[in-house]
Structure formats: C-alpha cells, structure tokens
Amino acid sequence: MKVLVVIDMQNDFTTGVLGNAECAAVIEPVVQKIEAFRKAEPDGLVIATLDTHTENYMNTQEGKFLPVPHCIKGTEGWQLVPAVQQALGSDAVITEKGTFGAIRLPEIIGTGRTIDEIQIIGVCTDICVISNAMILKAAFPEVPLKVIADCCAGVTPERHNTALAAMQACQMITE
Predict the structure, then answer these.
(1) Is the model's pTM score more than 0.70?
(2) What angle, 0 to 180 degrees and rounded to 10, lies between the N-to-C axes of helices 157-169 and 130-139?
(3) Residue 111: which H helix or E strand, with range?
(4) Contact at 8 Å (CB) between 161 and 30?
(5) Alpha-carbon torsion angle 167, 137, 61, 50, nearest 10
(6) Cα 156 vs. chain centroid, distance in angstroms?
(7) How many folded domains does the chain comprise?
C-alpha cells in the first residue's frame, strides 16, 4: 500500500496571515497530486494534517517565537483550502496537530500494514513538512519516503531548498 500525506494545506498558510506566493502557487499542484494518487492508488491511504491552535496560542513557546496567531481552530484560516478539501474527499483521514509534527502519524498509518511507499506534500517545507517527514522516517526506516518538491513550498525559496537538502541527507527521496 502507498500512503499520501498532505501537510497543512490550510488557508492561513497559503493565502492567509502566514501565506506567501510560493505556498499559494502549490495549491493547484497539490490538488492534481491528490487526484492522481487517488486514481493510481485506489486502495492507498490519504492523510491530511491540520495545524491547530487555540486562542491561547500567543502564550505557547511557538507563539513566543512566531507571534502571529494562525490556524486557530474553527476560524477560516484553520480550514483546508477548499480545492484541497474537495480533492481529499470524504475518506481521507484528517488529523489535527498542535505543533510542527503530527506525532500520531505513524499510529494512523499503522505498523500492521505493509507500506510500500510514503509520499509527502504540503507546506511549509522548512517547518512542518520536514518535521513530519522526520517522524515518518524514524517510524518507518525501511519504507521509501518521497517528498514531492513541486507540491511543497517553504517560508522562502531558499529555506524550501535547504529543507529538501536536509531530507535528502536523511535518506529521503525528493523529486
């Protein structure tokens, strides 16, 4: 079985308070990748993460380092980009995460399954994508992990490329 993990394709990271042109530009490639994956892997597992904060965000460690309230649960910024939500469909597994990495991802994927490949797409490459990729590589060290570079975007193009290089150094495939 193949797994596609879609990281934080939420309004606040694409067109909202923390959005940038690069993140907005990957919306359509992400939608196309989800649709292509579903067609090629009808039995595949699709998981999407939601960065999820509360009104208390500014009092958290992250809030002190990044003092921009974002992805506050229930707000429009917290919602998935509508085109991404539609492509995910009703059977995608959606998981909320209160920090960069979704610590439950390995549990959701399950250790009892035969996993042939894990693909990762989404934003931001240099924060949440790399954090989740590292969690998955640690949990599934022998499973090929592919980060689809043109379906990811970082805070800046330079940080995107630095994160891709770091993931390559950790034996992840970037294409």
Answers:
(1) yes
(2) 10
(3) none
(4) no
(5) 100
(6) 16
(7) 1
CA distance 44 to 48: 13
Kindly state the tokens that stand for 105.
Answer: 């991802």
175 residues of the chain, pLDDT tens digit each: 999 999 999 999 999 999 999 999 999 999 999 999 999 999 999 999 999 999 999 999 999 999 999 999 999 999 999 999 999 999 999 999 999 999 999 999 997 789 999 999 999 999 999 999 999 999 999 999 999 999 999 999 999 999 999 999 999 999 8
**Residue matched to tokens 């992805």:** 71
The domain spanning residue 140 has which CATH number? 3.40.50.850
Residue with tokens 């995608």: 92
Check: CB of residue 118 under 8 Å from CB of residue 136. Answer: yes
Which amino acid belongs to residue 76? E
CA–CA gap between residue 137 and residue 148 (Å, rounded): 15
The residue segments making up the domain with residue 38 are 2-174
The torsion of the CA quartet 27, 30, 32, 35, rounded to 10 degrees, works out to -130
Q: And the tokens for 79?
A: 């919602």
Side chain identity, residue 99: T
